[in-house]
C-alpha cells in the first residue's frame, strides 16, 4: 500500500471515530434496545419490571421475543443489543472500522473483486467522498447506534458477501474452493447476510443467480457459489417469514398498510433519493457512450473484458434502482432504506473510474476533473465543519443532561422528582444544507409517558423525564427568530 493510501485510511478512521464519539445515545431506540424485548410494539412504554440485557442468555431470550413479536432482522437486532450492552465506547471503535471497511469493500468490488491493499489513492478518496456526500440520511445510517446496526452493518455484510462472486465473475478460470470448509463458511455467511434487510437481499439473490448462471454457462461453477446462494435464500426466508413482521404491520398500520396517501408519500421519498443520487447516476450514464465507443473501436479479441465490465455495470445499476424502487410498495419509505441501493451505485461509479484508468480513456476533461476535485474538497470541508459543530453541540448537551441525571439520583428526593430538560435547538434550514443534511433531531418528548422518555428513565433509574413546555416554547421562539 502506498503512503498516501495509508494516510487516507488513518484519516478516514479518525474522522469516523470522532463522528461516533460525538454522537450521543439517542432518545428512543438506543435506550429501548438496552432492555430485554417485552413482546409489545416498540411504541408501547417499557413496564416497571423491564430488565436490562446482562448476559448471553438474556440476549438470546430477547431475540426470540423480537423474532416472534416485532421483526425478523435477527442480525440487526442482535448487533444493536450487543453494542448497547457493551457500551457506546466499544461501539464507537467498531462502527468507525465498519464505516471504513464498507468503503474498502466497495473499492474491492469495483476492482474486479480483488482484495488488495495496493490501493489507487485517488480512486479510494473519491469513494470516501461519495460515501460522505451521497448517503441518504447519513446520521441515521452511519453514526446513530441502532440505525447503523440496521443499515451500515448489513451493507458491510452484503457487500463483503459479494466480493468472491465478483472475483469469480472476472476470473472464471481460477478455482477458489480448496476444500469443503470454504463452501460451508459461505453457506453460514449467506444465512447471516440474508437476515438483514428486506428491500436489498432479494436483489442480491437475483445478482448471485446471474453470477452462478454465467459460471454454469462456462462450466466453471464451484460448489461454494451454490452453498452461498442457498444460505442467502435461507437467511432471507427467515427474515421475511418472521411472525414479528406481521405483528408489527398490524400494530403500526391497523387501518391498512397501503393506500393512495402512502403511495404519494413514497413517491416523494423516492424523488428525494434520486436527488441524492443524481450526480452519481449522471456521471455513470454520461460515461457510457464513450465506453461503448471504446468497445466498438477495438478488435473482437480485445473486447471480452470490456463486455464483462458493461454487463456488470448494467446488473448493478438494476439492483441499485430496484432496491429503492421496491420501497414504493412499502408501508413506510424512510430515506435510509435507499442506502443499500446507493452502495451498489457507488460500486458502479468505482468500476467506471477504474475503466478510465485501465483503458486510458478520459471520461471527463482535465478542466472538469480539476473543478470537481476542488468542488469536492470544498464541499467536504464545509459539510464536515458544520456536521462536527452540530455533533459537538449535541455532545455537550448530552453531557449536561447526564450530569443532571446523576445529581438527581443522589439527591434526597431524587426518586420522586421528574427531570425537566430543555430541548436541543433544532438546526435551521441553512445549517442543515451546509452540513450536507447531516444534522438530526433526537430530543425527548414533553410527554413523560412516551416510550422514548420512559426508556431513558428506566435506563438511568429515575422516575421520569420530559421536555419543559416553557423552555420548549422559548426555544421555538428563538428558532423562529
What does this structure look like?
The relative contact order is 0.11. Helix 3 packs antiparallel against helix 4 and helix 10 packs parallel to helix 12. The mean pLDDT is 90. This protein is mainly alpha-helical and 481 residues long. The protein is 69% helix and 2% strand. The longest helix is centred in the last third of the chain and has 45 residues. It is built from 20 helices and 2 strands.
Q: Give the strand order of the largest sheet, numbering strands 1, 2, ... along the chain.
A: 1-2
Helix content: 55-70%
Head-to-tail CA distance between termini: 52 Å
- Beta strand count: 2
Radius of gyration: 24 Å
Estimated share of beta-strand residues: under 5%
The average pLDDT is 90
Q: Please state the overall shape, judged from the principal axes of the Cα atoms.
A: globular
The number of distinct helices, counting runs of at least 4 residues, comes to 20
Low-confidence stretches: none
Order of helices and strands: HHHHHHHHHHHHHHHHHEHHEH
* Estimated structural class: mainly alpha
Largest sheet: 2 strands, parallel
Amino acid at each position: 500500500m502506498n503512503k498516501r493510501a495509508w494516510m487516507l485510511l488513518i484519516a478516514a478512521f479518525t474522522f469516523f471515530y470522532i463522528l461516533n464519539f460525538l454522537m450521543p445515545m439517542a432518545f428512543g431506540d438506543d435506550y429501548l434496545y438496552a432492555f430485554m424485548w417485552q413482546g409489545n410494539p416498540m411504541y408501547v412504554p417499557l413496564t416497571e419490571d423491564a430488565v436490562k440485557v446482562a448476559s448471553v442468555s438474556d440476549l438470546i431470550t430477547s431475540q426470540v421475543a423480537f423474532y416472534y413479536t416485532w421483526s425478523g432482522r435477527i442480525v440487526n437486532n442482535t448487533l444493536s443489543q450487543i453494542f448497547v450492552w457493551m457500551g457506546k465506547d466499544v461501539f464507537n471503535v467498531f462502527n468507525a472500522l465498519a464505516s471504513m471497511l464498507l468503503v474498502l469493500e466497495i473499492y474491492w468490488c469495483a476492482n474486479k473483486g480483488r482484495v488488495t491493499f495496493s490501493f489507487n489513492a485517488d480512486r479510494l478518496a473519491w469513494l470516501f467522498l461519495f460515501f460522505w456526500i451521497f448517503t441518504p440520511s447519513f446520521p441515521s445510517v452511519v453514526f446513530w447506534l441502532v440505525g447503523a446496526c440496521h443499515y451500515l452493518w448489513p451493507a458491510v455484510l452484503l457487500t463483503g458477501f459479494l466480493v468472491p462472486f465478483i472475483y469469480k465473475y472476472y476470473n472464471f478460470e481460477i478455482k477458489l474452493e480448496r476444500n469443503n470448509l470454504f463452501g460451508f463458511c459461505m453457506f453460514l455467511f449467506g444465512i447471516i447476510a440474508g437476515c438483514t434487510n428486506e428491500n436489498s437481499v432479494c436483489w442480491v439473490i437475483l445478482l448471485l443467480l446471474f453470477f452462478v448462471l454465467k459460471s454454469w454457462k462456462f462450466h466453471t461453477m464451484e460448489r461454494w457459489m451454490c452453498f452461498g446462494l442457498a444460505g442467502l435464500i435461507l437467511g432471507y426466508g427467515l427474515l421475511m417469514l418472521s411472525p414479528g413482521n406481521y405483528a408489527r404491520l398490524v400494530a403500526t398500520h391497523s387501518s391498512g398498510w397501503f393506500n393512495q396517501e402512502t403511495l404519494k408519500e413514497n413517491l416523494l421519498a423516492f424523488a428525494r433519493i434520486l436527488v441524492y443520487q443524481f450526480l452519481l447516476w449522471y456521471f455513470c450514464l454520461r460515461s457510457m457512450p464513450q465506453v461503448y465507443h471504446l468497445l466498438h473501436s477495438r478488435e473482437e479479441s480485445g473486447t471480452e473484458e470490456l463486455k464483462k465490465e458493461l454487463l456488470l455495470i448494467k446488473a448493478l445499476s438494476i439492483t441499485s434502482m430496484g432496491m429503492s424502487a421496491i420501497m414504493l410498495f412499502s408501508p413506510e419509505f424512510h430515506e435510509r432504506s435507499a442506502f443499500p441501493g446507493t452502495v451498489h451505485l457507488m460500486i458502479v461509479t468505482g468500476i467506471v473510474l477504474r475503466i478510465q484508468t485501465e483503458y486510458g480513456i478520459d471520461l471527463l476533461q482535465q478542466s472538469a476533473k480539476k473543478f470537481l476535485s476542488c468542488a469536492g474538497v470544498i464541499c467536504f470541508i464545509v459539510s464536515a465543519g458544520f456536521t462536527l459543530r452540530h455533533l459537538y453541540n449535541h455532545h455537550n448537551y448530552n453531557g449536561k443532561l447526564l450530569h443532571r441525571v446523576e445529581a438527581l439520583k443522589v439527591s434526597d428526593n431524587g426518586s420522586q422528582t421528574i427531570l425537566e430538560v430543555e430541548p436541543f435547538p433544532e438546526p435551521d434550514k441553512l445549517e442543515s444544507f451546509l452540513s450536507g443534511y447531516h444534522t438530526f433531531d433526537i430530543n425527548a418528548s414533553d410527554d413523560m409517558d412516551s416510550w422514548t422518555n420512559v426508556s431513558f428513565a428506566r435506563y438511568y433509574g429515575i422516575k421520569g423525564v420530559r421536555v419543559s413546555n416553557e423552555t420548549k416554547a422559548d426555544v421555538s421562539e428563538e428558532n423562529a427568530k
